[in-house]
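Table 4 source record.
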Amino acid sequence: MTDTANTDTANTDIETGLDPNRWRALLVIAIASLMVVLDASIVNIALPSAQKALHISNANRQWVVTAYSLAFGSLLLLGGRIADFVGRKKIFIIGLLGFAGASALGGIASTQALLFGARALQGAFGALLAPAALSLINVTFTVPKERARAFGVYGAISGGGAAIGLILGGTLTEYANWRWCLGVNVPIALVAVVLAIPFIHESKAEGNRSYDVPGAITATLGLVSLVYGFSQAATKGWLKPGTYEFFILAAILLTAFILIQTQVKNPLLPLRVLAERNRGGSYLASLLVGTGLFAMFLFLSIYMQGFLHYSSLKSGFAFLPFSMGVIAFAGVASQLLPKTGPRPLMVIGLICGAIGLLLLSQITPTSSYTTHILPAMIVISSGMALFWIPSASTGLHNSGLHDAGVASAMINTSQQIGGSLGAALLNTVAISSATAFAKTHTSLGKMNQVYAQVHGFAIAFRIGAGFLVAAAIIAFLLINIGKDSLVESEMGGAI
């Protein structure tokens, strides 16, 4: 009976022009997407162990996070174009194989330079994989109701994958080795490749297929130069030779990128996408949120394992309230968005996030998880859910079919680039603040360095809160979509 029912369903799909393997294809895409989401949170838990094993300095530890997010964010727009033009299935498989290879390289890395390079390679292949996965969902599911369900599955993976990564990262680091936090991607990717070959159909975009390679090069090198300048400032100082030259170079390259976007026929980032105030405001706010928030995970992971003496596994569980808070309040935000419009939710969420970071800035070497960290996590996670849900809608506002792909990619791009800049900048702030504190508090004796490092974290949290307040001001001034306009925009997009 079951075989007969499956055959009848397949025949019906063929008759209606639907892909009979579309739900199997969604399973493959879900596996690949879960791997990419896992990778972000799993590495944060493994970082303290990796730093110790490879003798990574405090100034350079942020590159484990930054190398990935910088490559991923700066190449995401180009990756989407390549997937559309070369073939989404082909690039999806290449992305999987490349991600697996880069993960294996990171897992066997014997030096910090090799680990940083492997993380950058992961980011580059992730920039091929992620937009290809989204595009495949879009072209595979042509019935609006089924497409909504498919994107719902994708969204659930994005929300829950981080929580799984925290537990998996803690388990692997605790009972195996931090290297398995990277190595685990290899079997996942290979299984996805084997399933992708029969279940996913190829598709390509038609029309102009030119690439904005100069734009991609200048944007990537400009951002790398900026981040490297922040890293150098941690050890040499902000205005010393070997630091300020990189800031100058970054300014030149990023200016060149903007000029290129106004001249080339098929720009990587059409400036018209940024010109609409709601979209531009959403991207800028997301950039500032990434800058202020992403380093929180880096510092808290070090604090829990280094100062609270949590195991890797316990640290993973300690982060769970953040993921659970985001998931819970995402549902609240989805219900409120049609009633309030995006601006109130975004502003309130960003203020909550800033308050949570200010609460974290009160930590000391003897602080308790339940009294100092847990309440702050809950406040931040609720605020970020209230921000992320409406910011996704405003980031696509009136983008039209022609720019929908670029506008969608810009939401992720702005967060990833903000995260890479924030990790580098706030790590530098933490180290500089710790050094200054240690020089003026020699009376603490043996506890001087301990208190100095936690003081550096606290100052970084305060600076992060400032970025979130700036994002709230941007949202308040630039986001002006009413609830009626939002509904009309979404209906127009659906049509």
